[in-house]
Design a protein that fits this description.
This protein has 226 residues and is mainly α. The chain contains eight helices and two strands.
């Protein structure tokens, strides 16, 4: 290696030609799914963090926080690994990071239950564990055909399908933050609106002869568009 040469990690050149070729249609599907899901998730998070979407009780649960924090970077990273050159040191290193994110996402999902019980979406938890194991095993064995199969099933199956469900089902965190809107002149006060209204009602009962003007902007409402 000369003083001007770069480590192979940054060159993007595979050490050997892997038998992991994707058809143009499959590459287009992966690119479309990855970019669309990443943009939707980013926009939903932006609305939620900036206060343009209603508050959601899910943001107070540690398991859901971990789930969201691990699944969101897994979406663009998985698409990049499928579309980028295979067999490079960077591909191998980022591939380990992606598998770790997927396993963490599936593990946190075990502790996320609807009405105290598992739902149909939890079927992807064992699927993710098994596909992650097979993904590593086939890569170490040099079985690129099997490796390709497991990666695609993990990305398009265990990642994209639950993602679509998360946006489609009303009431879920991503659905609320992406589609629901706040009705009210001052959405920033939506957290204390009910307390203000409750305090006003109590004061009116105790002292009905006094005027108690209603606070402006209190009790913001949120609805899901039809």
């Amino acid at each position: 290696m000369t003083s001007l040469s770069l480590p192979r990690f940054f060159t993007g050149k595979p050490s050997a030609k892997p038998a992991f070729d994707l058809s143009p249609k499959m590459r287009a599907l992966i690119a479309f799914a990855g970019v669309t899901m990443t943009l939707l998730a980013s926009f939903a998070l932006l609305r939620g963090f900036l206060g343009f979407a209603p508050d959601h009780a899910a943001t107070r649960h540690l398991a859901i926080i971990i789930h969201v924090a691990t699944v969101l970077p897994a979406i663009p990273l998985g698409g990049f690994l499928l579309l980028a050159p295979k067999g490079t040191p960077m591909h191998k290193s980022l591939g380990k990071v992606w598998v770790a994110l997927m396993v963490a996402t599936a593990t946190s999902a075990i502790f996320i239950k609807t009405s105290g019980s598992f739902s149909f979406i939890h079927i992807f938890v064992p699927m993710t564990f098994w596909a992650s194991y097979k993904l590593i095993a086939t890569a170490r064995a040099g079985d690129m055909k099997g490796h390709k199969k497991e990666v695609l099933s993990l990305y398009l199956g265990a990642l994209m399908i639950p993602g679509i469900v998360a946006f489609a089902l009303p009431g879920r965190l991503m659905n609320v933050w992406l589609f629901w809107i706040i009705l009210g002149r001052q959405p920033a006060r939506r957290r204390c609106g009910r307390k203000l209204q409750s305090a006003h009602s109590s004061a009116a009962v105790l002292a009905p002869d006094k005027a108690h003007p209603r606070p402006r902007g209190g009790g913001a409402l949120f609805v899901s568009p039809r």
